[in-house]
């Protein structure tokens, strides 16, 4: 079997998910998937003096839960990969001080979940390492003041706004056979359709998700019919609809497709505007809800396309449009 | 031959450097290595409306020079990896819009050069891709306002300050035999000795460089004597001296050691305080000056230990100390 990429994609044989840890915030707990998560916090400060420190504490919890399940300690993992939304990937970098193992920080905005899983999977598949821990987090209040305005300003939100999910997820990859494998990945390209509004991320990211999906299907000669479920990361209601239309215009039969930003919350009752976004959005839905269904064989194969808007607030202030990216991972129940 | 990591390190057999492109700023051009670089800019704005846009333009130039040397186009490269200092890795993300190939953004602060080369090398060694382009940049004025104060404030500098190098470097890795190979890498761990002063980076980063060097030597059973030259990224005068003392206290024989931050400038005459820092610092010295010497067999084997201070300005404002990391790559002239 060749390890070489086909276009932007590669199929994998020896990468499995050994364990996960999921921690969510108050609104995520009250959403339809609330009971799926290992732990929830009821207060955005989580006993810490700042939102950033609260986010890091959630991430530490997720990591500890993930390791405890497998009775492992920090030093039993060969390599740590992490991503979050803060300048400059703050939560994972500062948490990594406690870990004392090789660490790689990646940045893909809200696509960080699939990006870190994809990269970790490549390193396990190649045989460089046996165990890789991937970690992602986002926190509504820390992200709001990073990208938009401090929540205390009480700025009125636009109808197109998405709501950054509060949560942290750790996922342990291993070369040892487990119930679920990472079966294929597709790396994304940076796509920019000229959207400049930081309050309409779904619309900005839909073309990147479209590009990655089309590449995935073309590279591996697949379609929606090869999956029990295809989810995008956090396009939410507007973006999700746009992606569907883009695909249908290409005569793609869109079946069993949903968006994590629409699945994480009850959009008709919860105050999350168009739905969820943030690194934690696709990570919570995938590892909290879909991964257990793969373990139980209720799902056979799923495709997770995490989307990320790579904007820098500095460049938005300089009137630049928003670069976006999407990375895809295919997860499969092992026979 | 096993691909597996030995501790934090791995030796590689099939990764070569095919080409490079180096662009420097005005002070780097006037420094002792000025004639080594492919191109220099004489004005920090480089015809653009902002420092950030100028940095991106330099990066595009470096990429174009690197590709042109090999008569390649953007689409001939399988994968792009990039890193810079800006929130949120701005220069590479925004440039990647023009590239339309799979892209991975990594963040390691000033260690971004070695981190992206290390990661790219792993993916080439494994056979996933044949050609990987790594790109890093930093710009004195864009970094100053990102991490400290806008240059226009004219803040008085502390004696311990380093000077962010202005430059951009593209390095093309390939699986095809060339004159110089990436022979080994050591991934860093996040180390924090409790330093809180964002104007004394050398002191903060020295322990991370020490950790990576010690791991490298222990993992691969090597010493300074196995290299014609060992360079750290950007510890500059203070940090460079601290590292030397830390090593000597462990009875390590420190020979043929220098720091890129001290090599890039004439420290007795140029206004760069303790010396250079920034992603571009170790990248310019390595690819501008050392890589040609490896090609000409004037150097046989060198170790580059790029250091990075992973501070977030937000966390510094919250009185947190500075997490640091160092990644090492060993480059060797091919027989």
UniProtKB/TrEMBL annotation, chains A, B:
The keyword Transcription does not apply. It comes from the Bacteria. The chain crosses the membrane at residues 104-124. InterPro entries: SpoVAD, SpoVAD_sf, Thiolase-like. The keyword Transmembrane applies. Signal peptide: none annotated. Keywords: Membrane, Transmembrane, Transmembrane helix. One of its GO terms (molecular function) is acyltransferase activity. NCBIfam families: PRK08304.1, spore_V_AD. This is Stage V sporulation protein AD.
């Amino acid at each position: 079997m060749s390890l070489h990429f086909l276009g932007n994609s590669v199929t994998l044989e020896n990468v499995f998910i050994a364990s996960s840890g999921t921690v969510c915030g108050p609104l995520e707990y009250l959403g339809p998937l609330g009971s799926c998560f290992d732990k929830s916090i009821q207060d955005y400060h989580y006993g810490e003096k700042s939102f950033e420190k609260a986010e890091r504490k959630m991430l530490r919890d997720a990591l500890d839960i993930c390791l405890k399940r497998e009775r492992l300690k920090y030093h039993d993992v060969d390599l740590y990969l992490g991503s979050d939304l803060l300048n400059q990937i703050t939560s994972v970098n500062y948490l990594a001080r406690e870990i004392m193992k090789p660490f790689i920080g990646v940045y893909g905005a809200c696509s960080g979940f699939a990006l870190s899983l994809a990269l970790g999977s490549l390193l396990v598949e190649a045989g460089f390492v046996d165990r890789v821990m991937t970690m992602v987090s986002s926190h509504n209040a820390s992200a709001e003041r990073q990208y938009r305005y401090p929540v205390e300003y009480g700025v009125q939100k636009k109808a197109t706004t998405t709501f950054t999910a509060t949560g942290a997820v750790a996922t342990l990859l291993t070369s040892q056979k487990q119930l679920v494998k990472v079966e294929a990945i597709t790396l994304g390209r940076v796509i920019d359709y000229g959207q400049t509004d930081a309050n309409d991320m779904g619309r900005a990211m839909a073309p990147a998700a479209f590009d990655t999906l089309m590449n995935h299907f073309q590279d591996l000669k697949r379609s929606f019919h090869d999956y029990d479920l295809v989810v995008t990361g956090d396009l939410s209601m507007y973006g999700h609809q746009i992606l569907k239309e883009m695909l249908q215009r290409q005569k793609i039969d869109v079946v069993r497709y949903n968006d994590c930003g629409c699945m994480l919350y009850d959009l008709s009752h919860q105050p999350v505007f168009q739905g969820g976004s943030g690194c934690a959005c696709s990570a919570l839905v995938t590892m909290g809800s879909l991964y257990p269904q793969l373990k139980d064989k209720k799902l056979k194969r799923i495709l997770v396309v995490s989307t990320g808007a790579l904007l820098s607030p500095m460049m938005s202030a300089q009137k630049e449009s928003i670069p976006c990216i999407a990375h895809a991972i295919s997860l499969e129940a092992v026979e």
